[in-house]
Amino acid sequence: MRRALLFSLPVLGLLAWGLLASGALAAHMETFDPGRLKPTDSTLKVKVGDAAPDFTLPAISGGTVTLSDYRGKKNVVLSFVPAAWTPVCSDQWPGYNLALDMFHGLDAEVIGISEDNIPSQAMWVKAMHGLDFPVLSDFWPHGKVAGALGILRSDGMAERAIVIIDKKGIIRYLDVHDINSRPDLGGIIHELEKLAE
Amino acid sequence: MKRHLLTLAAFLLAVVAALPSATATASDVFPDVALQGKISPEQRQYLGVPDGDIRLSDINADFVFVEVFSMYCPICQHDAPGVNDMFARVLASAEADKIRFVGIAAGNTPFEVAFYRKKFGVQFPLFEDPDYTAHKAVGNVGTPAYYLVDLRDRRRAILVFHEGEIKDKDAFLKNVLGLVGK
Which residues belong to the signal peptide in this entry (chain B) (predicted)? Predict the structure, then answer.
């Protein structure tokens, strides 16, 4: 019996550690810190007043999303983020999710896009407790949409950028933000309010 | 033997459950951070601070409960109703006069703080920290982070520190009120 008990100790220890570890994971999302990056690393190919290049991209919810489907119906806020599982990106979209009523009240839909593939995006969004707006993958052909806008960095990540497109499909606001920091929610809402005037 | 194994398993699980969820900070003194942002006259009265710029040490109370949070942080969003409930229960307790609640919004602008306040109906004063000055001063903690700070001798000793979701708010609050009531 003593042998059985001794044998069981490591197993039970592992069980206890597993419980602890899963609790820690639920409470604190682990992210990869890329350090401070060059603030911007791309050259815009579009400007305010241009027609937004159309695209169709796969969504983590399944199926695809086409930008021009929103034409005549909704303003669109494209939020490009550089990479899943990084600190600033993980601390950006949950705020937009909390403010979705405010976006919808201004007749706008938020669409999140990164250059990560769908499986990575999906698990990342799950770790962020879920998001209620579309999250699209610009992974393949790699960076096609970000490249068309001129916000693809030389390392294959997108810039941290906000692109607001009105119901006519015209770009009304562009913010290629310092990749190391988060755009102010207030600034985005203010630009949408201007569209509503 | 099965009974012994079950007893051993139960013992280990009990040990795991009893482990504290909080860890100590590197420093046991809460920095005397500037509290930035507009608060209402009622909130100034609640904190016992005059008009103009204030620092944590200006708060006229024996203890201050500090929540370091972010509008963007999903755990903070999830915890917000529970923190409001703790605030209401403290106000209704025998220790209400001894303790004041404040929130410091790491990396949040005035717009973001105002939005969070309205979204969750937060009644206690929330302060903005757009350039993370206060957040850096407290050691870049994960959000949310909760502190009970002793202001009685103005040393700002940290009596409680908890990082992340408070899973058992009843036990947490009981501990806080116990320390305040000593």
Answer: 1-26
